[in-house]
Structures are given as C-alpha cells and as structure tokens.
Amino acid sequence: MVADARVIPLHAVDRRTRTTSEAGAGRPVQAVPDLAAGDSAAAAAAESVDAEQDDSATTHHGADASAEPTDPADRLADALAFFQRRLSGDYRVDDFGFDADLTDSVLLPTLRPLYEKWFRVETIGMENIPTDGGALVVANHSGTVPLDALMTTVAIHDHHPGRRHLRMLGADLVFRLPVVGALARKAGHTLACNPDAERLLRSGEIVGVWPEGFKGIGKPFRDRYKLQRFGRGGFVSAALRTGVPIVPCSIVGAEETYPLLGDLKPLARLLGLPYFPVTPLFPWLGPLGAVPLPSKWYIEFGEPIETADYAPDACEDPMLVFNLTDQVRETIQQTLYSLLARRGGVFGG
C-alpha cells in the first residue's frame, strides 16, 4: 500500500534551503497606447540593449539555463528515483497543497521545451528577485491562454540562483477546472485573495499576481500591449501589510501566441467561461488550433519597489495604495514599449 505523503505546515519548513535528504529528492527542492513607442521609449530601449551588452549576466537565454540532466542514463535514474519517492510517500506537501517534488520532477520539465525551444524566452533583471525572503512579482497578463504565468514560473525557478518557486495567485475559475485545478494546487498556486497572499509573503515566498486578470488575457489583439485596469490595488495592500518588495514584471511575446480576433459570447456563457476565443487557427483547425504560435519572448524583472519603510497602517491610506499601484502599472507599461523596440520581429531570434 502506498504510504501517505507528509503534510508540512507552511511555517515549519523553509523550502528554499531544504536539502536533498530532507526532501527525498535527487537535487535541492526550492521551497498598452500604441505599439510604436515615442522617442523616450526608443531611448530607453537603446539603453537597455547597451546595458545588456556590457553585463551579459543580466540576460539569460532559455536554452542555456536548464539544470536538467541531458544524459539518458541520468534521466532514467532521476525518473526511477522519483517513482520510488512517490511509492514510499517520501515527499512533502505544504498547507496549500504545494508538492515541490512533483513540480520539479514533472511539471516544470513539461514546460521547459516551450520555454527554451518554442518561445526562446530571454530573461532580464533576475537579480531583482530577492535571494531569500518574500517578494511580490506583479506582471502584465495577455495571450488568450495564460502561458505567460507558466513561463514566468520557469524563468524564476531555472534562472534564479536560489531556484525559487513562484507561488501564483489565480482566479477561482482555475481551481474549479478538472485536472487543471488539482495541478495548480500541486504547483503551489492558490486563490487570488489577500489572506492567502499575505500568509505566503510572510513565510518568505515569491508570490506572483497578474492584476489585469481575464481583462488582460481576453482582450482583442488590436489592444495588444495596452495594459488594462489593475483593479483596486489589493496586491499593493498585501505588500504593505507584509513589508515585502514589489517587483514589476514585463512580458513581451505572449500577445502573439493566440491572437484573439473574436469572442463567441453566447458559447462562453453556456460553458461558464469569461470568453470563448476565436483566433486565426482556433476553432477552425480543431486541436491543431490549440498549438501556440512560436513568438519571441522577453521577460524583464524591474527594480523592486520597497514597502518595508512604510508605517504598519499604510495599507489603509487609499491615496498611497493608488499611487503605488499606478507606479507599478506605469513601470510595466514603459518597459513593454522598450522590450517591443528591442525585439523587432514578432518571431525573430
């Protein structure tokens, strides 16, 4: 009979520094206006390119960063070790359902071919993600299907020196979907609500939020890279209450994976979905239409916005919350313009 996995209270273990022997794993387990930008955006883009040439450590190409074994014998050994741990129950699950062993051994390797070969993701500014302690990553959302959130998860885990896990906050629809909801819990994600977010942040986790929600990923292709409303600033309140830095994250490339040309609203209402997409390939080609277009991606993490110096009750100041929310949104928007100028062609190398 298969032994039960151990359930570990969130505060009882630091997943970022847990050793192999503790996890039973084969390796450490870690806990837009118009598309054409103005002169200032072009200058910012040029400065970004020059800075990257001067310091190549700030940009990571997906194909170079995977720490996964390439030798078939090593892969087989890893797979056998994983199945042995599952059969013996020698793995840990936290209060949110996060299974680091399953995430590192199965879920992330499944996403890496998309990240490295299909989208050829380049990451910039990874040094802005803290080595330890909590932080709130706030990103733009786009692309009809939320692949941008998944690629950001791979970026932080594979390219951060601490191989940290991104604990994403998702809409309730995600957790109602069969299979998807269970996998999201296993990957460490939870409902987008302040109590869960604050608990994760206080325990030293990297938490990811996409404030545009369905308005972002479901917007028409003609509105690509134009940020939608960021809500009421709930993510800023969570950061202020916990004193963690806010890291703006700008993602270019996701908009072109499934260009949204139309929305079959009656069908969406029938299925209980926020929208039912019509793209150049879907639903015309059936299952083949679900294959994303191989756009070129950039993910840039901006300089952290510190919140630790604010008073404990600063989250109750609506003007402060509004101003910080607007600052994060404007930072992401301007960085998108810069990245678009840098990328050039949609499918370029």
Would you mind describing this structure in some detail?
This protein has 349 residues and is α/β, with parallel strands linked by helices. It has a domain at 40-61 and 113-257 and 292-343: Glycerol-3-phosphate (1)-acyltransferase (3-Layer(aba) Sandwich), CATH 3.40.1130. The protein has 13 helices and 12 strands. The protein has helices at residues 20-23, 39-54, 62-65, 72-88, 100-118, 147-159, 172-176, 180-186, 194-202, 213-217, 234-242, 265-271, 318-343; strands at residues 6-8, 59-61, 92-94, 122-124, 135-139, 166-170, 190-191, 206-209, 246-252, 262-263, 277-278, 298-301. The strands form 3 sheets. An 8-stranded mixed sheet has the order 2-4-12-9-5-8-6-7, with helices on both faces. A two-stranded parallel ribbon has the order 1-3. The protein has a two-stranded antiparallel sheet with strand order 10-11. Helix 5 packs across helix 6 (147-159) and helix 9 packs parallel to helix 11 (234-242). The longest helix has 26 residues, at 318-343. The chain is globular. Mean pLDDT is 83; it is low at 11-57.
Question: SSE layout and pairings?
Answer:
Layout: E1 6-8, H1 20-23, H2 39-54, E2 59-61, H3 62-65, H4 72-88, E3 92-94, H5 100-118, E4 122-124, E5 135-139, H6 147-159, E6 166-170, H7 172-176, H8 180-186, E7 190-191, H9 194-202, E8 206-209, H10 213-217, H11 234-242, E9 246-252, E10 262-263, H12 265-271, E11 277-278, E12 298-301, H13 318-343
Parallel strand pairs: 1-3, 4-12, 5-8, 5-9, 6-7, 6-8
Antiparallel strand pairs: 2-4, 9-12, 10-11
Helix pairs in contact: 2-13, 5-6, 9-11
Any idea of the CATH class of the domain at 40-61 and 113-257 and 292-343? Alpha Beta
Order of helices and strands: EHHEHHEHEEHEHHEHEHHEEHEEH
- Tell me which CATH architecture of the domain at 40-61 and 113-257 and 292-343 applies here: 3-Layer(aba) Sandwich
- How many DSSP H or I helices? 13
Rg calculated over all Cα atoms: 20 Å
Task: Give the N-to-C terminal Cα separation.
Answer: 51 Å
Can you give the mean pLDDT?
83
The CATH topology of the domain at 40-61 and 113-257 and 292-343 = Glycerol-3-phosphate (1)-acyltransferase
Count of DSSP E strands?
12
Helix proportion of residues, in percent? 40-55%
Strand content: 5-15%
Shape: globular
Name the structural class. alpha/beta
Unreliable segments (pLDDT under 50, ≥5 consecutive)?
11-57
> Largest beta sheet, briefly?
8 strands, mixed
- Order of adjacent strands in the largest pleated sheet: 2-4-12-9-5-8-6-7
